[in-house]
Design goal:
By secondary structure, this protein is an alpha+beta fold. It is built from four helices and five strands. The chain has two domains: about 90 residues, no CATH class; about 60 residues, SH3 type barrels. Strands 4-3-2-1-5 form a five-stranded antiparallel β-sheet, with no helix packed on it. It is elongated and about 75 Å long.
Length: about 190
């Protein structure tokens, strides 16, 4: 019975500081436990990031009397917290670089210059008339790049029969290679063979 009272006291201490404990079947402390677990990106618990230490027991979370809060070495504590926050920032930046490297693993950077020729991919949302049937072409071109808005967007020289904006995302464009003509018959005289 003594163990159960101790668990109830721990839950009571957590409730005063971080909110109500989730009581499920057989569990006396639930909701407050995630505050003390270490995060994979910061390598520290959220409590440790904010306060600079991990509490050993839930009673460490109770507010101290005012005369015990005043500290003579405040500057040392402030320096410690600054170093801690710097370490957390470095851990987060390192983890962000890992995420970025993984997300950009298969991507290739494509940029066009003004005057380049490109093919345009017809998206159903943007070109509903050109993509209403499966047998219709999925792209058109070549079109000339008139303006480079940024590395991700380009303005093209579209004919008047397209009733859409002439600015396209780079994901809808592919480079036009005018050196390879796929329509030539290799068996004709002067063909590829």
């Amino acid at each position: 019975m003594q163990v159960r009272k101790s668990a109830s006291l721990n839950c009571f201490a957590l409730e005063r500081v971080i909110g109500p404990c989730g009581r499920t079947s057989g569990s006396t402390i639930g909701a407050g436990a995630d505050v003390l677990t270490s995060h994979s990106a910061t390598k520290m618990s959220p409590f440790e990031v904010v306060y600079g230490f991990n509490p050993i027991t839930p009673l460490d979370l109770l507010p101290l009397p005012q005369e015990q809060v005043i500290s003579k070495d405040g500057k040392a504590r402030a320096d410690y917290v600054k170093r801690l926050h710097q370490q957390v920032k470095e851990n987060l930046e390192r983890r962000t670089q890992q995420y970025e490297k993984q997300a950009n693993k298969g991507r290739k950077r494509v940029t066009f210059d003004v005057g380049d020729w490109v093919w345009v991919h017809f998206r159903k949302e943007r070109f509903p008339a050109q993509r209403r049937l499966k047998i219709l072409p999925r792209g058109d071109g070549p079109f000339q790049v008139l303006e480079k808005v940024n590395d991700n967007a380009y303005k093209l020289d579209l004919p008047g029969d397209y009733i859409v904006s002439a600015t396209f995302n780079v994901s809808d464009l592919s480079p036009y290679d005018n050196s390879a003509d796929l329509r030539t018959n290799p068996f004709q005289e002067g063909g590829m063979m």
